[in-house]
Design a protein that fits this description.
Blueprint lengths: L2 H13 L4 H10 L4 H15 L2 H14 L4 H17 L6 H9 L6 H19 L11
């Protein structure tokens, strides 16, 4: 992961939508791959409230990311969060996939993924699924 993307992701995960100026900056001036651009555009659309467009951008990013595990799991995590926002139960399979592959997720993304998995579990799966635990 390029250094500038690492900084932007840290800012985004800390400040959320208040990091929009930094996101705009990286999209305009940064020399980043098209996959990262699609991911950042999806976040921007999500913050505008255009959830279905954001999901389509994430699908494009998911189809393009083939060599970065960090980006792959980050996109899957955001997709689950977006599906939660639109109250879609389509994410159940994705939830189980992320839960199953949780030990293999890079540590940087694992913190983000764990909170998303807990939120999704509490929203849709609390009665008919095994509880998600983040400790070993």
């Amino acid at each position: 992961m390029p250094k500038e993307i690492s900084y932007i992701n840290k800012i985004i995960s800390t400040y959320g939508s208040y990091a929009k100026p930094f996101l705009n900056w990286i999209l305009e001036t940064g020399k980043i791959s098209s996959t990262w651009k699609a991911y950042f555009w999806a976040l921007k659309l999500y913050w505008k409230g255009e959830y279905l467009l954001a999901l389509s951008k994430l699908e494009k990013a998911l189809n393009k990311c083939n060599n970065s595990k960090t980006l792959y799991y980050l996109v899957l995590t955001q997709k689950l969060a977006f599906l939660l926002r639109v109250n879609s139960k389509e994410g159940v399979e994705l939830f189980h996939k992320l839960k199953r592959e949780f030990p293999y997720i890079p540590s940087y993304v694992r913190n983000i993924t764990s909170s998303t998995l807990i939120n999704y579990y509490n929203s849709f799966l609390s009665s008919n699924s095994s509880k998600f635990r983040i400790w070993t």
